[in-house]
Amino acid sequence: MAERGRQDDRRRRDGSTGAGGRGRGPRQRSAQAPSQRARHGDPARDAAYEVMRAVADGGYANLVLPTVLREARLQGRDAGFATELTYGTLRMQGLYDAVIDACVDRPGRAIDPAVRDILRLGAHQLLAMRVPDHAAVSATVALARQHVGQGAGGFVNAVLRRVSERSRPEWLEQVAGSTTDPIERLAIENSHPVWVVRALRAALIGHGASTAETSERQLATLLEAHNTPASPTLVARPGLGAEDELKEAGAVPDATAPTAWTMPGGDPGQLAAVRDGGAAVQDAGSQLLALALAAAEISTTDTSATESSTTDTSTTDAPATNTATTNTPTEQWLDLCAGPGGKAGLLAALAVQHGAHLRANEVQAHRADLVRNTLRAVRHAHPEVVHVTVEDGRDVGESDPGRYDRVLVDAPCTGLGALRRRPDARWRRTPKDLAELGPLQRDLLAGAIEATRPGGVVLYSTCSPHLAETEFVVKDVLKVFPSVSAVDVRPLLRDRAGQILPDTGPGPWAQLWPHLHGTDGMFLALLRVGA
Ligand SMILES: C[S@@+](CC[C@H](N)C(=O)[O-])C[C@H]1O[C@@H](n2cnc3c(N)ncnc32)[C@H](O)[C@@H]1O
């Protein structure tokens, strides 16, 4: 049964429209007899199901969904319904699984993964969307019949009818009440893996955002923030003239960061400024981080590194020598892990204003292409200011030692700080990822320090508050480099009004939080390289 569903999915992803496929548009559907209609899911639910299955196969919802919506020609309200159904279901699937398991005759019985996805979609409609119960059940049963088979339709019907017998608060009471462990309870209520909730509790306490006594309340607010979709924040890259168009499009200046704007509605991708690269969708926390690096004090005593370039051009798209004249010291900036280029985009615009040069480096060639594309506005207007390289960041300390004034290490991490933007991410990550990322994060930071000239600064950042990839990494690396010291980064985090952001921790590093700052959970540590 399940295999039939998979074949159907594969055919549809290939673009063919087998019986009951997505090629059937809404107009054709309305011409069908009602009995026939009931056997097929409607296009919006069908799209949501398709994304769920792709995510189960390792796909990323934010990458798959736009393609599926486009292929299904879903727009407007239908696209909105499919998006809310997909993202909402992925986010809350931990809670829905607990509810579903409470509704089957033999809890723990293995449910076919495709059927479970369909049940999750049904549970979300019943417990979180304004879809009448009968419509939610019948449309989801139709989805099961179409993709899996008649028998699955009967099973889905029975389970969803049980789900519909209680309200969401009643289900929360029942399934979360099954444990006395407060962390497990929070995990079920807020649909997070238990290990993630434990790690976030440790991070809240470790970064000074709560005490052991207040951690439960803070955790609950943080987990709720992860379940609240974030409206898109944009960056207006300074000096590229995007602000006027953003204003005209109804965007409003965001108080969190001087370069940040929020769009109350509409598709930012339609804006000419976004298409040109003068503006982009970017979390305000990421913007603060780039602004902090550009604003950090550096000692200007040693500029020797800027007067002779040793950059190997074999994998670069820039001339070998510094384009500034050798007797006009130009600050050299390096973004060591730049792909896909979000922070490099802002850094490049700031580099123009500072008369600096930015090297944006990325280990993967295809991601370096994304960086080039992100930097297109600055590269077009000021080709001498920025160049993109493909190199393992761990080698840059050796290939280009002591060269840079300001270095960003936006390290690969678990992304546990961006869960509100990536609904499927919380289920994808495991503690094993931390073990694998730890050595790489340490090596990249060490390489960055070696590539920085005495008096220069390195900003280490992650989109995660997990202690193992934030504070522990920095402390370990500082032990190896006694001449490097941590600088208090908190005074550099200033909102649009110029005020220092509150509640970023006891220092010298800083942790941003979705529930406290309205940003992703970015960590940043600023290190000064000594003589
Ligand atoms: C967190 S992302 C950087 C995001 C980026 N700063 C932005 O704002 O768009 C980490 C990047 O590091 C890259 N990376 C992983 N290992 C690397 C290495 N050894 N050297 C350089 N980059 C690496 C990954 O491919 C990924 O693009």
UniProtKB/TrEMBL annotation:
An annotated GO BP: methylation
Regions of compositional bias (Basic and acidic residues) in chain numbering: 1-15
GO MF annotations in UniProt: methyltransferase activity
Residues given in the record as S-adenosyl-L-methionine binding sites: C337, A338, G339, P340, G341, G342, K343, E362, D392, D410
Keyword RNA-binding belongs to the record: yes
InterPro entries noted in UniProt: MeTrfase_RsmB-F_NOP2_cat, MeTrfase_RsmB-F_NOP2_dom, NusB-like_sf, NusB_RsmB_TIM44, RCMT, SAM-dependent_MTases_sf
Active-site residues, as the UniProt record annotates them: C463
Domain annotation SAM-dependent MTase RsmB/NOP-type: ranges: 222-530
Key words of the record: Methyltransferase, RNA-binding, S-adenosyl-L-methionine, Transferase
Region (Disordered): 1-45, 300-327
PANTHER family hit by this protein: NOP2 YEAST -RELATED NOL1/NOP2/FMU SUN DOMAIN-CONTAINING (PTHR22807), RIBOSOMAL RNA SMALL SUBUNIT METHYLTRANSFERASE B-RELATED (PTHR22807:SF53)
Recorded family membership: Belongs to the class I-like SAM-binding methyltransferase superfamily. RsmB/NOP family.
The protein, known as: rRNA small subunit methyltransferase B
